[in-house]
Amino acid sequence: MEEISAENFAELEKRYRMTAVVVFAQIATTVILIIFGWFYAARSENAITPRSLMTLWIAVIFIAVGTFILRRMLNRWERLKNIKLSKGISGLLTTLQTNAIVLGSVAETIAIIGFLIAVLGGIKTDVFRAGAVALIVFLINFPRKSVWKKIVANLESV
C-alpha cells in the first residue's frame, strides 16, 4: 500500500473520528428505540392486524437491500476518482463521511419503521426483528478506516 502524506492522514483521522462518533450515536439511538419500542408496544392496544402491516415489512426489506446497492453506487471507484479530481482529498473525505452518515440514517429509518410496526401491531418482537435488520445494515455499512486509507492512498497520486 502506498503511503499517505501527513497532512492528508491528519485530515483522514479527523474526519473518520467524527464519522465514527456520528455512526455510533446513530447505533445508540437505534438500540434505545428498540428498548423503548419493547416497553411501549406492550402497552399499545391497537387493532391493526399483522396483515395490514405487511406493507411496512416489505418497505423494511426493500430499504435494507437498497442500502447495499446504494453503498456500492456511492463507493464506485470512478465516482470517487472524479470527486478527488474535482474537489481534492478534502472533498473526497467529505464525500466518504457523508456517505457513511447517510447510510447510517437509512438504517435508523429501518429501526423507526420497526418501532411503528410494533406499536401499531402490538407485537413486541417486531421491534426486535426490524432492529436486528437495522443493526445488520449498520454492521455491513459501518465505515472502515482501512478502506478509507486505501482509497486516499490510491487516489492521492491521481
Question: What does this entry look like structurally?
Answer:
This protein has helices spanning 6-43, 54-74, 77-121, 125-141, 145-156. The protein is an all-alpha fold. It has one domain (6-156). The radius of gyration is 19 Å and the shape is elongated.
Features:
elongated; 0% strand; single chain; 158 residues; mainly alpha
Strand-helix topology:
Elements: H1 6-43, H2 54-74, H3 77-121, H4 125-141, H5 145-156
Helix pairs in contact: 1-3, 1-4, 1-5, 2-3, 2-4, 3-4, 3-5
* Structural class determined from secondary elements: mainly alpha
How many runs of DSSP E, i.e. beta strands?
0
Tally of helical runs: 5
Helicity level: over 70%
Shape from CA axes? elongated
Rg computed from alpha carbons, rounded to a whole number of angstroms: 19 Å
Major β-sheet profile: none
Order of helices and strands: HHHHH
Q: Note poorly predicted spans.
A: none
What share of the residues does DSSP label as strand, in percent? under 5%
Quote the distance from N terminus to C terminus.
15 Å
| Total discrete domains | 1
Average pLDDT over all residues: 92
What's the short story on this structure?
The chain has 158 residues and is mainly α. It is built from five helices and no strands.
